[in-house]
Structures are given as C-alpha cells and as structure tokens.
Design goal:
heterodimer; A: alpha+beta; Purple Acid Phosphatase, chain A, domain 2; 7-stranded mixed sheet; 13 helices; B: 447 residues; alpha/beta; Alkaline Phosphatase, subunit A; 4-stranded antiparallel sheet; 12 helices; 26% helix; 21% strand; globular; PhoD-like_MPP (chain A); PhoD_N (chain A); Metallo-depent_PP-like (chain A)
C-alpha cells in the first residue's frame, strides 16, 4: 500500500477494510487499550509508537496502581497484518502510568505502516503511520495537519476528526496547548477531569488520559504520526523557566516540582522522542524537501516583562529559547540542506504592533486574548517580548542568505499569515522579507468573538483591519474562527489552508476553508492563493471582501478622527 | 556582408602553429559590426549552410547548449512583471530554487567553477582579487594562466565541435582567453565598469550563433550586476536596477525567439544562472580592516588585503616563523570589528591554501573597503554569504530537458560543467568533477 493508493481511496475508512478514522476507532471504555494508539517523530528508518494499557480496573490513570505488564507491538505493511515488518515487546507499569512507547527501528523510508499493540489476547485499535523519506532524497510533496490550542472545556474536537478523515496527511504538527491546566468550569460544555487545576503528577496524568479518550483525537492519532511540542498550558499559563503566571507559590507547591511532574506526564502520554531531563527541541528531516525544527519556548525562557513599555523586552540577557537552543536553531537554519526550513514555533515570532485606535471594549477583548498587558495590548509572552533572540534568528537568516524558512505557529487562537521583515522600518517600502510565518487557529480555545460575545465576522473585522493597517507585513488575520490548518510542501511552494468549524461545540461540525496563502520557492514572501489546495475558492474570505473593505475604511476613518 | 581575415599566430616551440586565428566580421541588423576571433577550422554557417536553411539557419546538430549568466541576478528578482521572459523560460524548464553560488561569491571564481566543474582549490581561481605571493602584489585573476585546469570551452573544441564565449566583462574575456573556438571581445567597453552593455553582448551572441552555430556558448550579461553595483537607491527604490533587469530580460527573450525562429530551439538546452547574488550596503556600514591590522605592532607593514566586496582575503607577508601567531591575531582583530560576520581558513571554503591566510566575510548590509574607507564606494555588493542564493534553471526545447519541473536539490555553480559535460558526452576529467550532474533537469538519454 503506497501513499497514492491511500489517496485514491479518499478516506482511511476504506483502507484494507479496516476502519481507522471516525468514532468507530475509539477504544472501548472497558478494553485495555482504551486511550487509543499513536505514533510520532518519524525518522527515515524508525517511528515511535505509543499506547496506554489499562491492565486492571483499578489501574486508572494517575492512580499509581496496577501491575507491571509486557505489551506486544506489531508493525505491518498491510492492515490485515499478514506482512509483518517488525514486532517486539515493551515493559510498562505504574511507574510510567502504564503508558507504552516503542521506538521501532529498521523500517523502510517513506513508507506507510500499520501497527497495533497486544496484551493477554487483547489487541489495540490499529494505527497507521509513515516513516520519513530518506536523507537527501527528492520528495515531490508533503502534507501536514497543523493544530494548536485544544481546550477540552471550550468545545469538541471536530477539527481533529476532519484531519483524520482527510487521509492525505503525512504528519500532524501540534504546536502546543494540547491540553489545559484549568479546573472544571461549571458552564463548560464538557468538564475537565480532575475537576481541580492540575498541579500534581496524578492531576497531569489524569488530564492527559481524559483528553486521550476523545474519539476525534484518537482517530487522528491513529491516522498519522504526530510531531508535537508543548506551549504553556501543558504545565501552566504563561510558563517560563522559573515560574508561570498561573502558578502561586507556596500554595501550589514549588514551581520546579510542578514543572517536573508536568514534563513527566507529557513524556509518558505523548508520542514524542522526549524523556524527562532531556531536550524537547529536535529536528526531523524529510529528504531534501523539508526539515522541521520543533522548538521548546517554555523551559529555558526568562520571565515575561510586566508590561510592553518595559525596556526589558530588548534586554540581551533575556531569552525565550535559551542560548543552547538558540545556537542549535540558528546553526541548523544556516547550514540546512533541505529546501524548506519549517520551524514548529509555539508562540508568534512576527512583530505585532497593536494600535491605540481600538476602543476600550476592543482593547479589553484583545487583551483578554493576547495576554499580560497594561493599557496597550502587546503580547510580551511572544517573541515580541524577547526581541534580542528574535533579532539573532532573523539576522542569521539574512547574513547567511537563508531562503525558505517558514515558522509554523499556534498559541494565539487566531489565524495569521505574515512576512517576517528583514527590517520593519523599511518593509513598507521595500517589502523585503527574510522568512514567513503561518499561524493556525485554535481547535477550540476562545478567541475574539467569544470574548466580545458577538457573532463571528462582525466587530472582529474592524479589529483585524486596524491591526493589519499598523502591521503591513500581516497579510491574513482571522480572530474568530476555530479549526485547523493543512500545510502542503512542494519544491515549488509552501502553502497553508485555514479551515473553520461551523460550531466548535458540535463534534459533528462541518468545516470550510477560509483562506489559502502560499510562499513561492525562493521568495520568502506570502501570496494569497485564489483556490485552496483542494481546489475550492475560500468562500469565507471571498464572501467578506466587501465587509473587509468596509472595515478597512472604518479603521482608516477612526485613525484620522484620532 | 561578412568578412574573414586569417592571421598567423605565434609558432609553438615544436614548430606547429597552435594559435592560428581568424577574424570574422559580421554585419548585424543594427548596422554595427560584430567581430569574432576564431580558431582555425571553425566554419562559418553563412558559407556552409546557405542554401539549406538560409544564412543563420539551423544545421543538422542535434544538441546545442547555451549557458547564460545574468551576472549578479537575485533569484527573487525573476517575477512575471519585471522579467517576464526569464519567468516564462524558468517555468518551462527545471528550476532549482535552492541554487547557490560558492565561495568566494564573486564573478571570476564562479564563472571558472561553471566552466571547469571544480572548486577553487583545484581551479586556481578563488576570488576576483588575491594577493599574489610570487609577485608580491594584490592583483585581479584575469590571466589565462590563472585557470589551472581544462575548461569546457577547450574540451568541447578538442572533440571537433565548436565552443563559443561571449563575455561582457573585460576580465572574464581575458581570463578565458582563447579557450573557446569562437570568441567575442567585449566592445564597446563602458569606462569604469569595464564591461560591454548587454545590447552589444546580445548582438554578439546572435551573430556568433547565426554565423558559427557553436555546440556550446558561454555568455555573460553584465548590465544587471554593473547597475546593481552603481545603484545608490538600493533595493527599496532600485529603479536603475529594475530598468537593467527589464532590458536584460528582453534580450534573453529575443535570443530565445531567435532560437525558435531559426529552428534551433528543438535542439537547444538553455541554462540560465547567476554567478552570485547582490546585497546593498549603507554608507555607514563599511568595514576597513587595514587600519586596525596596521595598528597592531606584530602585523604593521606585514599585511596584504585583497578586497573582494563582501569578503576580505588577508595574507601575512612577514616571516614564515611568525605566521601562526600573526594569523591568530588577524582573526582576533577581524572578529572584533563591527560588521564582520565570520572568519575562515581558505581550505575550509575549498579555496587554495596559498590564496590567503584568512577569508573574512561581512554581514548582510555591510561591505569591505580596503585599504582605505573610501577605496570601495560602491553600495551594491557581493562576496559574502548573504549573496549566495542565485537563480539556476535549465530550459530549452531539447527533448532531454524536463519541462515545468522544480527541484529541491542544492544546485551550485560548480554543477554547470558536469551537466554540460554529460549532455555533450565529454570524457571525464582528471580527478573527477567537484560538482554534480543535475539529472533532476534531464531525461535520461533516449528516455
């Protein structure tokens, strides 16, 4: 079974008679593999497989109970497991919350595989995964799902279901805020377990387990390998190396302890080549076409400054990456042999100036969405709060003539496409850009219309127009939609399609493409694509051309009036 | 009316006449005449083909290769609006969007790499200007003897086929000398820039192709680079640059049209490439290393700097016993100088070890000016890593050319010779190529 054959079927559901996508894949509540299966971090000859065993009724996540077990795994070329490529066993037990990670080696590059786990006569659901192309090999095309900010309590994970049903994804990139630390909210459509804010190892394990029961998330994990990084909510809001905005000492214990247990649970529960004490930042390569550098922007960063007028944002001693990671990133970008240098970047790197022409209500709503501010919305939790590190990265790109760097970003619950100006002062005249940034919106987490408590594409249009006026390098901005993105990488271009859910509260919600932007090879500049990669005119954006123009006029008038 | 004049060349020591030359004077449509010098034995098409295809018509050749170097062209300057002909040509062939020039990102080393297929540590040409230890002076590498290995031009000629060079810059003309079977001496030369305008170069190319129908022609179009160097308005308002791009693009378009109308297109492979990119520096971002090096007691009076725009080649001219300590000190001083990006030993860049002790690169937006801060007043600049990205695509109507393709391969200037060599079926070179055949752009023989 090669990729083309899979693509022709149009849906995973038809592959080999095995249903992989959709709710049917959700592991039964009583079966020992009830948290599904997953794979991640594909290399040319290996891939990491994941599952969680529930060996006994009492061995619930976070409980620390249950016996050690030996779990079998099988990797096959076919969904019927007649042509086995590899098999083995992995030990697990209560010390790692009965999670299983198997690094399967000796596989063929650029190849689809099927996998499953077994224990005492029970088999897990079947997952499908794919190895990366061989180092240096020519690759015609890659397709990635791109997601971030999936808050269980803010809605249903229909975005994951849509991606799972596509059947054409080589990889899913999750840019962080895979889960949220908050306690149960009484008015939420579905509530967090445990009901308290997670601060202990048991809490973190239970929350991870709860998210892994979502049928859409299970379906997506079973459909394609993931490459993940964490942002702040995997530990606590606005985390930095020595604390977090949403962490109070001593009431919630020492931050170092909380950070340690959050990272332990993450290592246990995510299909990622990361173990506690190691480095989460890492690089995956896809032949000569692309490489993906996944960043960790929480573990080494300096504390956020208190407000945007704090000159600390330009302090060379402050860092968002840590020196070692910054050196690793810039060295990787400047010596890369792959054409496209994709960077999995949990928070926005594009400079964003928030103009003072917004009224108080809009300011408050934007502030609610974007983080710590005083007076003027300005997100000092992003690279904007650490300009020295950003300058070092962009400077390296320019000095070394690096082309094809695309930052893939989450965190901000909104869709953006922006050029990264070589020099923001001259950009409006020169248009010179050294890289680009594509930001996917949230799977469910709140954004502007949710905060404004208004219908989507109303007041947000004005806010978007004002921000784009003040930031001419921002080509696309959608503050309202929830959903997912699909990224296509070819030697000719990188393009992203943004999809919006009709209703984030509905697990069966429809989705429609809202925009498509591309970066032609060698340009490092964004272009709007008239059609999505599926050949559809982005109806949402096209339909609001008139409204956007009106909003633009309105914004200009307001600017003049002030 | 075309004239032929044959002049006896100097006799070789064994008495054979190895450089017997002939001059072809070709009338052009503009009324100006193009003068080509040829090796003896190169037939004129007007004499041999007239009556079959008419003067200037295509003969029976199955393959013709044209390597067009648009000097200093940046890959992002090829757009449907500013360079429609290059844009279309690129779309019709195989494009290498990752293509890069190689150190030092200057005209001479990269043209020599294109024609030899080997890096400067083998070709002998690491930069435009070097400190010549034997002569004790900084000089431009513009002598035929500076290239130490065979080039495609004479290798094609040795197989009984015709090679041609149409090189707009004086130093390119002199370094490649009489290697090609047919040469055009650039004229008229524009003072200061020492290059012929693309209008003249294009006329010479057309005349050469029509009259001698070479199997391989190596072309340098210098206007885009020369205007880039002079353009004080930089990238933001580069009107002059835009004008040169537009004109040069039109010349390329016309040449392609001529290939089509003369019936040569179906047998043509057209490679378009640049030798380096272009960066623009600001007036206050000038690096002059001479003064800080001279200020050091251990180095004073014992330093030679070959300034190559975005790269300075530093040589210690003092006693050999002092070299190691002096080089360490030079490195230290260079790295402490604002605007310096990095310092390298020549060998690490595959430059000949004797070309310099250190190669110093500047950051984007800066330039070197040595020996004095006013020695290099030109804002347009290259030689440093920011100017590595180049356009490189292979087009043409020949059936071996893969149409409408794009490759992620890291193509470089040194790949031109092996690719042309493969197309023309040339025998391997001694020691093998340093570059690679860009098979991504070619269907296999008979395929």
């Amino acid at each position: 079974m090669n990729r083309r054959q899979v693509l022709r079927t149009g849906s995973l559901a038809a592959v080999g008679g095995v249903t992989l996508a959709g709710p049917a894949v959700a592991a039964g509540a009583e079966q020992p593999f009830r948290h599904g299966v997953a794979s991640g971090d594909p290399l040319p000859d290996s891939v990491l497989l994941w599952t969680r065993l529930t060996p006994s009724a009492g061995a619930t996540p976070g409980s620390g109970r249950g016996e050690e077990s030996l779990v079998g795994w099988e990797v096959a070329h076919d969904a019927g497991f007649r042509r086995i490529a590899a098999r083995g066993h992995v030990r697990t037990g209560p010390d790692r919350d009965h999670t299983v990670k198997a690094d399967v080696v000796g596989l063929d590059p650029d190849t689809w595989y099927f996998y499953r786990f077994s224990w005492r006569g029970s088999s897990s659901p079947v997952g499908r995964t794919r190895t990366a192309p061989a180092v240096g090999s020519a690759v015609a095309s890659l397709r990635f799902g791109v997601v971030s900010c999936s808050n269980w309590q803010a809605g249903q994970f229909a975005a994951y279901r849509h991606l799972a049903e596509r059947g054409d994804l080589d990889l899913v990139i999750h840019l962080g805020d895979y889960l949220y630390e908050y306690g149960a909210e009484s008015d939420a459509p579905r509530r967090h377990d445990p009901p308290v804010e997670m601060t202990t190892l048991e809490h973190y394990r239970r929350r991870h387990a709860q998210y892994k029961t979502d049928p859409s998330l299970q379906a997506l994990h079973a459909a394609a390998p993931f490459a993940v990084t964490w942002d702040d909510h995997e530990s606590a809001n606005d985390a930095w190396s020595g604390g977090a905005e949403n962490h109070t000492e001593p009431d919630e214990g020492a931050w170092a302890d909380r950070k340690t247990v959050s990272q332990q649970a993450y290592a246990e529960w995510m299909p990622v080549r990361y173990e506690p004490g190691g480095k989460l930042y890492r690089r995956l390569t896809f032949g000569s076409l692309a490489e993906l550098s996944m960043l960790d922007l929480r573990s080494y960063r300096s504390e956020q400054v208190a407000h945007p007028f704090d000159r600390g944002v330009h302090d060379e001693e402050r860092t968002i990456t840590g020196k070692e990671q910054l050196d690793w990133l810039t060295a990787g970008l400047t010596t890369a042999t792959s054409q496209w240098k994709l960077v999995g970047n949990s928070v926005m790197i594009s400079p964003v100036q928030f103009p003072s022409t917004l009224n108080n209500r809009e300011l408050e709503a934007v502030a609610e969405m974007l983080g710590p501010i005083e007076g003027v919305p300005y997100n000092v939790d992003q690279w904007d709060g650490y300009t020295s590190d950003r300058a070092a990265v962009l400077r390296a790109l320019r000095d070394h003539g690096v082309s094809g760097t695309v930052f893939l970003t989450g965190d901000i619950h909104s869709g953006w496409a922006a050029d990264l100006p070589a020099d923001p002062m001259t950009y409006p005249l020169s248009g010179d850009s050294v890289a680009t940034e594509l930001v996917c919106t949230s799977v469910t987490s709140d954004n502007l219309d949710d905060y404004l408590k208004l219908p989507p594409r109303t007041l947000s249009l004005v806010v978007e127009a004002v921000i784009k006026l003040a930031n001419p390098h921002v080509k696309y901005l959608d503050f309202d939609s929830h959903g997912f993105s699909v990224l296509e990488v070819t030697p000719a271009q990188v393009r992203m399609d943004w999809f919006r859910l009709a209703d984030r509260a509905d697990p069966a919600s429809a989705a429609e493409v809202t925009a498509s932007y591309r970066v032609p090879a060698g340009s490092d500049k964004l272009e709007r694509a008239p059609r999505s990669m599926d050949g559809i005119v982005p109806r949402h954006e096209a339909a609001t051309e008139h409204e956007l123009a009106a909003a633009h006029r309105q914004a200009l008038a307001r600017q003049e009036a002030r | 009316m075309n004239d032929e004049i044959t002049t006896p060349g100097a006799a070789a020591s064994d008495g054979t006449d190895v450089s017997r030359r002939r001059f072809l004077r070709i009338a052009t449509t503009t009324g100006a005449a193009v003068v080509l010098s040829t090796a003896a034995g190169v037939p004129a098409v007007s004499a041999s083909q007239a009556g079959v295809h008419g003067a200037g018509g295509a003969g029976e050749k199955k393959l013709r290769v044209y390597v067009l170097v648009v000097d200093g062209l940046r890959p992002d300057e090829i757009t449907p609006d500013t360079t429609p002909h290059l844009y279309t040509l690129r779309a019709e062939g195989t494009n290498f969007p990752q293509a890069r020039a190689l150190p030092v990102m200057e005209t001479l080393p990269n043209h020599v790499m294109m024609m030899t297929g080997v890096r400067p540590d083998r070709s002998g040409v690491p930069a435009n200007d070097v400190y010549d230890r034997a002569e004790g002076a900084v000089r431009t590498l513009d002598r035929p003897s500076d290239i130490r290995v065979p080039t495609l031009l004479e290798r094609v000629a040795e197989t009984g086929r015709v090679s041609g060079s149409v090189l707009s810059k004086e130093y390119l003309y002199t370094i490649f000398g009489e290697r090609a079977s047919v040469r055009w001496e650039p004229e008229p030369l524009i003072p200061i820039t020492d290059h012929a305008p693309d209008l003249a170069t294009k006329l010479a190319l057309s005349a050469m192709v029509a009259e001698t129908d070479p199997d391989l022609v190596f072309v340098n179009l210098g206007d885009v680079d020369r205007v880039g160097h002079a353009d004080l308005t930089g990238t933001s308002l580069g009107l002059l640059r835009a004008g040169a791009l537009s004109a040069t693009d039109a010349y390329v378009g016309r040449f392609v049209d001529e290939l089509r109308s003369s019936g040569r297109w179906e047998s043509s492979v057209v490679m378009v490439i640049a030798d380096h990119s272009m960066d623009w520096s600001h007036g206050h971002k000038v690096i002059s290393l001479q003064a800080p090096l001279e200020a050091d007691a251990a180095l004073a009076g014992r330093i030679a700097i070959a300034q190559n725009g975005g790269a300075d080649l530093l040589t210690f001219t003092g006693p050999e016993a002092d070299r190691a300590a002096a080089v360490a000190r030079m490195r230290e001083i260079a790295l402490a100088t604002p605007g310096v990006l990095s310092v390298h030993r020549p060998g690490s860049l595959r430059l000949a070890p004797d070309c310099a002790d250190l190669v110093v690169y500047c950051k984007a937006g800066w330039r070197f000016s040595d020996p004095t801060p006013i020695s290099n007043p030109i804002p347009g600049n290259h030689g440093h890593p920011a100017t590595e990205p180049i356009p490189f695509f292979i087009a043409g109507g020949h059936p071996r050319v893969r149409k409408g393709a794009m490759s992620s391969a890291l193509a470089t200037t040194v790949d031109v010779a092996p690719t042309v060599g493969e197309l023309l079926g040339l025998p391997p070179i001694e020691g093998g190529y340093d570059g690679e055949v860009r098979r991504e752009a070619l269907f296999s023989r008979g395929g």
